[in-house]
Design brief:
Layout: E1 11-18, E2 22-25, H1 26-33, H2 39-43, E3 48-51, H3 58-72, E4 80-86, H4 97-101, E5 117-118, H5 124-136, E6 145-154, E7 166-175, E8 180-191, E9 197-198, E10 208-209, H6 211-236, E11 250-253, H7 258-275, H8 278-284, H9 303-312, H10 314-320, H11 326-331, H12 338-349, H13 352-355, E12 359-366, E13 370-378, H14 382-390, H15 395-400, E14 403-404, H16 407-419, E15 440-445, E16 451-455
Parallel strand pairs: 2-14, 4-5, 4-6, 11-12
Antiparallel strand pairs: 1-7, 1-8, 2-3, 6-7, 8-13, 9-10, 12-13, 15-16
GO biological process, one term: farnesyl diphosphate biosynthetic process, mevalonate pathway
Keywords: Lipid biosynthesis, Lipid metabolism, Steroid biosynthesis, Steroid metabolism, Sterol biosynthesis, Sterol metabolism, Transferase
Family: Belongs to the thiolase-like superfamily. HMG-CoA synthase family.
Amino acid sequence: MASSSWPENVGIRAIEVIFPSQYVDQTELEQFDGASTGKYTIGLGQAKMGFCSDREDVNSLCLTVVSRLLERHQIKHTEIGRLEVGTETIVDKSKSVKSVLMQLFAESGNTDIEGLDTTNACYGGTAALFNAANWIESSSWDGRYALAVCADIAVYAKGAARPTGGAGAIAMLVGPHAPLVLERGLRATHMEHAYDFYKPDLGSEYPVVDGKLSIQCYLSALDICYRLYRKKFEKQHPEQSGAGLDNFDAILFHTPFCKLVQKSVGRLSFNDFLLSSEDKRVEKFAGLERFSTATLEGSYFDRDVEKAFLTQSAEVFEAKTKKSLLLANQVGNMYTPSVYSGLVSLLIGVPAAQLVDKRIGVFSYGSGLAASMYSIKVTKDAAAFEQFVDKLAYVQPMLNSREKVVPEQFSSLMEVREKNNHAAPYTPTGSISALFPGTYYLKDVDALHRRTYERTPTISNGVH
């Protein structure tokens, strides 16, 4: 099966997303928490937050998303040669989520599947995607597909951070001749040691967060990755030197909350301003000359710089990024799947014809910290791309069919999760009937902490 020539156009051949069937309304949560009106909705840019009861864990999310991708795209289990899970939701300190997923492949007899779990906050999914592409472009490739799976349940203790939670999973089928191609040689990475967000208490689902440092780390990593990406891009495309943001037709970001993404577009515009010639500044950044002595390091919390470049980049945000925030706004922060939920949102929010042969910039960030900026080139084959996008027609109906839960009930369900986080033996009490058709759920945990899962019935029409 393996080809001796370098595989062409390696990238994403199929993508599947799932999110919780229940959500809490952020306006109602503001009132329940006694927060000022608009703090979560306007301040953070969040409308609804999806959450999981004790019936779902990271294993069940991954079982659901992988099953659905294989079923929807009619991929045989024997066609998968690598499967890697990016997650920071740890159920077991030794046993990988990937090993749990091998149950799906048992009947086919395919146990020859490389890959394990990859962990570093919200970056693990990107690492899994890169590793999948690297495998296909390596001498290890045997001609089969790879699967990169991202899944997390983001929950916070009661307080200011709780409305930035969320949950979800995304699976990406990676192979050659893809509708979404990872552009070769256009990857920029920045990694360093920081305690901006971390989970040192293995008995709790809750992280330790230094909010201000976390935003600084995110923006700093964005600056570094963007400048490095620009250098690599200009080396590949000298004729487009200095174009900066103009080189992207769409730009996606890891989204802890939507407002940070809007600020990030402004941040990239500020970088373009600092890197541009005086002539270009006069032409493109008229009225912003007063910031020519500003520095990246000194401007992370500079309100004047932030406001000026938010305004300057408003049209870019509207045209290239806003439509990618649908799932982030409606579900919340999914952690590892977050930036890829942005990709799904873009694909269902923009007519396919407008994206053919276009370049999509992607910034992925995980606290602690690991970050990359890379780009995806949409195929020139309009028919193939339209077929690819058509497979995502289920996303909006699924969003619309979710069940709204009042904040009081949401809060009590969170208490149940918190109290029984590592309980054994344990039988979950969350509603099974509330789950979407075809959802795997936790049936029980025995005295030895062994988890068993069952699946709600699938239906051929409607939400699936």
